[in-house]
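pipeline: protein-struct stage 2 | run 1193 | Putative toxin-antitoxin system antitoxin component (TIGR02293 family)
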Amino acid sequence: MSAANVQIGDWLGVKAPSTDSDILRLVEGRLATSVIKRLMGFGLERSEIDEAVIPARTLQHRRSRREKLTMEESDRVLRMIRTLSAAEAIYGSRERALAWMRRPQPRLEERTPLSLLKTDTGSRLVEELLIQIDEGMYL
């Protein structure tokens, strides 16, 4: 089991997934809306979650009906956690990782990494940039 999977389990408040298939099952099983509170507890702002995961009004509606997040929203939560976890590993602290994710990046056409996490393609660009930074190819 990877350190990233242990962190995913910690961040979601569930047993750490052992494999990517376990992560897929979490997404397909749809996460509870309470995971949004956990994201905020990790330093993400409500507006950032609105933009990348689920708008506040939609979340309120889901909570009132005791519904879970959709698979797409659950996938966006995992994408956000995975990316923040990678940035935290590279920058050494959550505060520094969040600061980097909120800062416009020249390699991302002056967009912030957080703003790109709403799509799979955008998150791949962010993850690739983090790999390059980690390998010393880009600072």
